[in-house]
Amino acid sequence: MEDLIETDVLIIGSGIAGGSAALVAADAGLRVTMITRSRDPLSSNTNWAQGGIIYKGKDDSPALLEEDIIAAGAGYCNPAAVAQLATEGPGLVKKILIDRLKVPFDTHDGDVSLAREGGHHLPRIIHAADRTGAAIEIALIEALRQHPNIALLAGHTAIDLLTPAHHALDRLRIYEPQSCAGAYVLDRAAGRVMRVLAKRTVLATGGLGQIFLRSTNPPGARGDGLAMAYRAGARVINAEFVQFHPTVFVQPGAQPFLISEAVRGDGAQLCHADGTRFMAKYSPEWKDLAPRDVVSRSIYFEMLENGLSHVYLDLRSTIPAERIHAHFPTIVAFCVEHGDRSDPRPRPGRAGRPLLLRRSVDRPGGAHND
């Protein structure tokens, strides 16, 4: 391969953000080069996501969605961004994911089935069992590989953005307005660095969950994109708001494993070992369907107050067994493999063990990928 690639658009990252951007640009006739550090383009935050994606619920509206988003964001959200998401988001989900990619979302009576998750006043979440992200990513990568205007390069790690202000021989260029002309990219298989020159560069590198002790993010979520953008002179804001997924399976010898928010959306409740629920104390209105930051803090306060290392998530007392197995097969399989295999029948005075989990929730640690 050449040490220099010239393209119209360079996209760094192969998840739903980068992939959908690549499709739109390529459909417009632009040449797109897409790189991912993983040797398997399917390995992304998107692929690991269990829960669903926001669509349009019955009797829903952009105004109602805006209201829920702003409330979940504790008033910190950019109003213009929220308005655009609420107005255009559901339509794009239908146009790209349902109509274009044919993602096999679960259906009911001939239409996509709608679920409710934390922070939403009504059911508007569509899903593919508990592997929604994988269903989306598989369909997306297949479309990217088939598109004649897209070159998908796996095993390529972006090192730094090419910015004339920082890489010019004339050091006075740093005082000029910032711009980006592509990136330095390491081809790991060949062991060499190449330049990718692009008219437009899109950073879609995922989060930085791996900087924390525990994370439900894949290994590549280490903040590369944020660091490159910062070095290039981009304004970095709201970096203190790392969204934690509050429910994670933690067991010695097992990888921290996400327990989807859809589980609480289906009726699961947070509790202590004796079955005592506690979310009503912190969020009387939402209880276990409170926004994630509220749930995370509530869990943490309960652990501090009671000197605990973890709390539990109880499914058995609220969700029929057949529904658990039908809606959350991936979660069930992981918990059976790694969890408590002793007698799962409820003990006297207890709400029952939470789906074969010994430690269903631990200290919040890492960005989510639900």
Could you give a short description of this structure?
This protein has 370 residues and is an alpha+beta fold. The chain has twelve helices and 15 strands. Helices cover 32% and strands 18% of the residues.
In words, what does this structure look like?
This protein is of the alpha+beta class and 370 residues long. It has 2 domains: 4-232, FAD/NAD(P)-binding domain, CATH 3.50.50.60; 248-362, Flavocytochrome C3, Chain A, domain 1 (Alpha-Beta Complex). The protein contains 12 helices and 15 strands. The chain has a 6-stranded mixed β-sheet. Strands 13-14-15 form a 3-stranded antiparallel β-sheet. The protein has a two-stranded antiparallel ribbon with strand order 3-6. Strand 1, helix 1 (16-27) and strand 2 form a beta-alpha-beta unit. The radius of gyration is 22 Å and the shape is globular.
Structural class: alpha+beta
Order of helices and strands: EHEHEHHEEEHEEHEEHEEHEHHEHHE
Largest sheet: 6 strands, mixed
Shape: globular
The strand line-up of the biggest sheet is 7-2-1-10-9-8
Distance between the first and last residues' Cα: 37 Å
CATH hierarchy class name of the largest domain = Alpha Beta
Total number of domains: 2
